[in-house]
Specification:
By secondary structure, the chain is of the alpha+beta class. The protein is built from two helices and six strands; from the N terminus they run ααββββββ. The longest helix has 27 residues. The radius of gyration is 33 Å and the shape is elongated.
């Protein structure tokens, strides 16, 4: 074998390895590394801003206290709502029959509380909602509550 034969056989082997496994990896340039760090900082700052503004929204919580059926067409639901005293909330109240079908539904608005009332600074208020029902109800609960945007 001549030296030309050796180089001809060695060269295709290198090409086949490069084709199979890819060429040599290039290191990240200084500019690319800097851009990645800047992008990570922007994403981190954006996330922190989102967390800060979303927690600024006053949450509202509720607790079912009880219910009573006045007659076959009316039910009363007693519950507590806890929210920032100056906020306005809306709550969806439902009455259900023995098969858990909704037989009465009402959305009520709960306005700002007196901050001087109650032991918790006026955050929690007791509520009673009277619902009309299409058939006798066997339970009544708060389905959900949410804070109403004051700009609307």
């Amino acid at each position: 074998m001549t030296s030309e034969d050796l180089s001809a056989t060695a060269h295709p082997a290198n090409n086949s390895l490069a084709n199979r496994y890819g060429g040599q990896k290039r290191a990240l340039t200084r500019k690319t590394k800097r851009n990645i760090v800047i992008a990570a900082l922007v994403v981190g700052i954006g996330f922190m801003a989102w967390v800060a503004t979303s927690s600024a929204q006053a949450p509202v919580t509720f607790k079912d206290i009880g219910y009573s059926t006045v007659d076959g067409t009316q039910a009363e639901v007693d519950y507590q709502v806890t929210k920032f005293p100056g906020a306005t909330a809306k709550c969806a109240i439902k009455a259900m029959d023995s098969k858990f079908a909704v037989v009465g539904w009402k959305v009520v608005e709960i306005g700002p509380n007196d901050p001087k009332a109650g032991a918790d600074g006026g955050s929690t208020t007791a509520q009673r909602t009277v619902l009309r029902t299409e058939s006798p109800a066997v339970s009544g609960v708060v389905d959900s509550c949410w804070i109403v945007d004051s700009g609307k």
